[in-house]
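Budget justification, computational time. The allocation requested in the original proposal was used primarily to generate structure tokens for proteins on the priority list. As evidence of use, we reproduce two of the resulting records. The first is shown immediately below.
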Amino acid sequence: MKSLAAILLATAAPTVATAQSPAPATPQAAPTYTNPDDWLCRPGRTDACSANQDATIIRADGTRTIERFDADENPKFDCFYVYPTVSADPTPNSDMAAGPEEVAVATSQAARFTKHCRVFAPLYRQMTLVALREALQGKPMPDIRARAFADVKAAWEEYLAYDNHGRGVVLIGHSQGAGLLKDLMAREIEGKPVQRQIISLIIPGTNVAVPVGKDVGGDLKSTPMCRSNKQSGCLVSYVSFRADSPPPQFSRFGSVDQPGMTAACVDPAALDGQSKPTDAYLGAAGAGMGSARQGAWSQDGAPVTTPFVKVPGLISTRCVTAGRFRYLAVTTNANPADKRTDTIVGEIVRDGRPLAAWGLHLIDMPVVMGDLVELTEDQAKAWLAKNPPSPAG
């Protein structure tokens, strides 16, 4: 299989790997989602979202412990997850079969949320990596994007009709999935009764336009940016770059081409805007397809036997503005006394070199994963305080 970089990046100036405001599609083109096989993840079964989430905690002095993961057996709220651009199918739209790439990304991005919520993740006929390469070269893709959106909309409607039962729900997506959920929120949720059931909208890896100096408006008319973990019905969105490697001028991540607007940036590790260490859960072997392989995690070179690694205090984040860009700046807190590696992989790599325009796209979620998971729990409590379940529920 070709690498992610080889498939995507045949152009000198890459654009954002997300769905862009798809044109309306005919509902009959979408799957019905009544078949369990149309879902990548559903509660109560063994699938990508029940994969092992154990993590090795490596501290600054080199000592290690294993953090065992337990999913909530009786979660009080739901999470609806839409995965990013991963399909290596040779067609413009992917099929409805869960390949290893879809399973892997759900294991990395969605499964940990089962600590607090029921996770529903539909398969969908996404724009594939092959089609994305053509889109990056300027080929219009309205039908392809519309088909992906129609599928996500159909899955959402099926979930609401038969699984939701009035529960609060967190919408979670990355990259193409984030773009699709942004459009779902704008077209199908805002201004309708179902909006009151939205605990939060977590969509990193895409650009969300907001008015400069304001928390609401722009792409989403009535969904403000989250400023407190006790706030519900709000937005978490950002794109991540290393603090010492900001977006180059030709990057489309972190900027919007709308007068008076900027890209939303909400740091889930520090909603108050104060930089602090994140609760990262990083892939033990690296950031997945397209990434360089992660080297040894500590000076002793000891292997890691869990799928994930935690490095408390090593990584910090902060939303920053630099020219027309607004993004989540990621800092590795290097210290000569720290026995852990200072090299955390996360860029898309081509010919051995990181592609600066994409930043840390591959670890947009892992770099703050623990913060995101606990934020959903806190916001769900706030939502439930305002929307207590009925005695029968």
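The second record produced under the same allocation is shown here.
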Amino acid sequence: MQADETGRGEARRRGERWRAAYATDPAATRGRLIPEAISPTRSDFQRDRDRIIHSSAFRRLKHKTQVFVHHEGDHYRTRLTHTLEVSQIARALARALGLDEDLAEALALSHDLGHTCFGHTGEDTLDACMAAHGGFDHNAQALRLVTRLERRYAGFDGLNLAWETLEGLVKHNGPLLESEGRPTPRWTARGIPAAILEYNALNDLELARFAGPEAQAAALADDIAYDSHDLDDGLRAGLFDLSDLAEVPFLRGLLDEIDRLYPNLEASRKIHELARRVITRFVEDVIAESTRRIAALDPRSVADIRAARAPVIAFSEAIARADAEIKAFLFARMYRHPGVLAVREKANLIVSDLFARFTAEPGAMPDEWSEGLAGAGEGRIARRVADYIAGMTDTYAALAHKRLFTTTPDLLWHPSSRGLPLAEP
């Protein structure tokens, strides 16, 4: 046992792969809803990752908003570049903790498939439009995409992903049900989305248990990625300055470290040094805290991770506090910046106009979306319209609005960027 632990430690230090007993084993997968022949060259989780990358929904992330509408600058993150950053961090966590890297990557790549055009603005608007019909949630929409809406394969709708991938997609933020069956606090007010309950009736995802460790790692990778890159984008856009970050003790410490090591460093390099240090500190913290929790739990299999009473892959209390403080800063100084809010207002108008028009006149949608809606009830029509709009890119939504309405809001807003270079000289 001691030799095994020593070898594992050496592998971790060299960045090599190793598989822990508590990792999700692709050889022991619970399989797919529709059985398929085993691939001779890829594990089920590798196949899932590849199917996600080749999906139409994944390609559309290229022109979907993260914070800035994609045409506001070539160097700001889009939903696709955010997803790729999450994937890289998830793989790093998985490798260090002995998890299945392919499953962690598949979950990172799929976690935002259900996001609408115009980022959270589009989601909030669609949720309001769908209030009488079950609302709209991007996690539930991602499940709809990979189980129903993608139509590429001859033998099934969706991507027919493995049980473990679907479980992680639905539960990466934690269980949806308490042990006695009532919704967890997050879902108490509005209820669990119907799309999740409907699929769960076909293929039990164990909504009262935690997801496997790879899903937990992907969820933290999401937090780490957008903390880092939203700080980077916000600084480069001139929404706040480096001196403003002193409001956050964790960031102030990193900036002091950079100034000590690199006095008089130019602003663009200092921004990058800050972003990379945020990622490094957070990743190292997750590895250390998760190792501590794993040692305390002593899981012998992935089932022990799922049955735990708390996440096993997690931030320490200190870094969880830093994460919350960074998010509070970004909410006040970036997501609620007047320029960002002005674009949100215009995007809200585009989405709400499209929803109203298509629900009143389903034939205004392409034939493949309006087919079969003659005589359908309001709920069915509304859900079909929500599926159609949610799949739109920012560009497509704006063009659809121009086709149907006499005036369309101008979404252009060019952040000042404080004169910082966004590309290599």
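A brief technical remark on that second record: The chain has a mean pLDDT of 91.
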